[in-house]
Write a structure and sequence with these properties.
It is a single chain. The protein is of the alpha+beta class. It has 2 domains: 111 residues, Probable inorganic polyphosphate/atp-NAD kinase, domain 1 (Rossmann fold), CATH 3.40.50; 157 residues, Tumour Suppressor Smad4 (Sandwich), CATH 2.60.200.40. It contains 9 helices and 18 strands. A 6-stranded antiparallel β-sheet has the order 6-5-18-15-8-9. A hairpin with a 3-residue loop joins β11 and β12. α1 runs parallel beside α5, α2 runs parallel beside α3 and α6 packs across α8. The two termini are 20 Å apart. The relative contact order is 0.17. Pfam families: DAGK_cat, YegS_C. Belongs to the diacylglycerol/lipid kinase family. Its cofactor is Mg(2+).
């Protein structure tokens, strides 16, 4: 049975241009009737998905986490299943879902059609799949230009992180959850919905994208060398045992800062503090292995 798919590719993604033709041909050979839409800017993705609400059975998106993030609102509104071709730099959502990085395998998974509901994070009206954060990560995002990502790939995250860390200072914030309030001085506050972010860092050891909760950590190092000590634990998600990290788990958080601070959602700066975070259980469906 032929499936009608809206096929959206970020032509500015690191691998988008080279692999677009191959993806198109393989998906057609697997029985998909593709409706391709021209997108000049990621901000248009949600509206394009809404416009195709009644004419397709699923949406296939080729790109990275930023492209997927831009499409989230349209997917929530239309209830169309999402197939992912990981064509970005970090592909943390694909990693969380176990979708392989190779294009032929990713196409085969979409063709198999196993659908799984997943949660979304929400902050100030903006959705996120992986992580929303403020502090160090925002500076990394500002330094992580398209040219840097295109040239260095996933290693660009490490290089820009070192540069941002050198110039970062702690900031004051108040975190509120279920009647509990904590004042912190942090270099970064991150709220995770999925498992991976930042090119393979783990939000928490037991984090999952369908656990109907958020995982928050406050990174409170004072010197750059302390980051070297805590980094291996952050890769594993076990950073909660570090003396420089505080962690919380819950369905909803409020974060206040002395002055507005920008917030990064899945690698894009989209809002600022004061911030209201909450989990959106089973918000959309994704095709998984």
């Amino acid at each position: 049975m032929t499936q009608r798919a809206l096929f959206l590719v970020n032509r500015h993604a690191r691998k988008g241009q080279q692999q677009l033709d191959a993806a198109t041909n393989q998906l057609k050979s697997l029985g998909f009737e593709l409706q391709e839409a021209s997108i000049d800017h990621p901000d248009q993705l949600a509206d394009v998905i809404r416009d195709h609400r009644g004419s397709v059975d699923l949406v296939i998106i080729g790109g990275g986490d930023g492209t997927l993030n831009a499409a989230a609102a349209g997917l929530v509104d239309t209830h169309l299943p999402l197939g992912i071709l990981p064509l970005g730099t970090a592909n943390d959502l694909a990693r969380t879902l176990g979708i392989p990085a190779t294009l032929p395998e990713a196409c085969q998974i979409i063709a198999a059609g196993k659908v799984q509901p997943i949660d979304l994070g929400w902050v100030n009206g903006k959705y996120f799949f992986n992580v929303a954060s403020l502090g160090l990560s925002v500076q990394i995002t500002r330094n992580l230009t398209k040219e840097v990502k295109r040239r260095w790939g996933v290693f660009a995250y490490a290089a820009t992180a070192i540069q941002a860390l050198w110039n970062s200072r702690r900031f004051h914030a108040e975190i509120q959850m279920e009647g509990r309030s904590e004042k912190v001085r942090a270099i970064q506050i991150a709220v995770g919905n999925g498992r991976y972010y930042g090119g393979g860092m783990a939000v928490a050891e037991d984090a999952a994208i369908d656990d109907q909760r958020l995982d928050l950590y406050s990174l409170e190092i004072e010197h750059w060398w302390q980051m070297l000590a805590v980094l291996p634990a952050m890769r594993r998600g076990s950073h909660g045992v570090s003396p420089w990290v505080q962690t919380w788990q819950g369905k909803e958080f409020h974060v206040h800062t002395r002055r507005p601070r920008s917030i990064n959602t899945d690698g894009e700066i989209t809002t600022s503090t004061p911030a209201h975070f909450r989990v959106m259980p089973n918000a959309l469906s994704v095709i998984v292995p």
